[in-house]
């Protein structure tokens, strides 16, 4: 990786208009609708719901800058890139038939050393077109496994959120469909590793895996269900670490600890008893 060019690189701003159909497609992609007659689900997938609401984790998807890190001048070994962490903070609720624009900033790089990789921290801010209101701040951490020895701009990476040392206060089990990745990709992430069995096998997986941000969407739903009575306006922020891939069709079980406005959580796959999302922290409004 060319650190000097990376720090000067202008990650493109993206403007997009979100329709109710876009919001409903995203909601279906993260599994909403497993309770098809429940108003808590219908508020996200039925345009005549009063009021119609948007799953808050959609801020991670809309106005995404795309594959900017593949720019040749950056010399990033992007094939070895992994999505390490993701978090978002809500300043204002998303609403359909509204245009949004993103601004993106590289916050810095932590070099783990030659052969050990590096970590890149990116911040996206989402604004409402017209009013200019800040809607959400989204932070992404990318693990660049092939770029160790590139040099650092930050002293160290933030420590992960520590989970409480007690039994969880609640547990939410959410199924995923065999076709979940094929639905979710229609919200904008067309990486073939989530659809093409041959490409997935070349990447070391037995079959296509679920998008990490789709798993995050399911964890967001679990926190809403366990702590917010399914009201998205009660969720202020959420952050987690990606620790293992999920296969479509698996059941995600989220363990939740509630301490006032702070919620800690982790998610495991029931069928394999593997933690796939870890060190989760949410803050309630």
Automatic annotation (TrEMBL):
Q: Name one Pfam family in it.
A: MFE-2_hydrat-2_N
Coiled coil start-end? none
Domain MaoC-like residue range list: 163-276
Q: Which GO terms describe its molecular function?
A: (3S)-3-hydroxyacyl-CoA dehydrogenase (NAD+) activity; 17-beta-hydroxysteroid dehydrogenase (NAD+) activity; enoyl-CoA hydratase activity
Which BP terms in the Gene Ontology apply to this protein? fatty acid beta-oxidation
Where does the Peroxisomal multifunctional enzyme type 2-like N-terminal domain lie?
18-146
Protein name (Swiss-Prot/TrEMBL): 3-alpha,7-alpha, 12-alpha-trihydroxy-5-beta-cholest-24-enoyl-CoA hydratase
Origin organism of this chain? Ramlibacter agri
Q: Cite the source lineage.
A: Bacteria, Pseudomonadati, Pseudomonadota, Betaproteobacteria, Burkholderiales
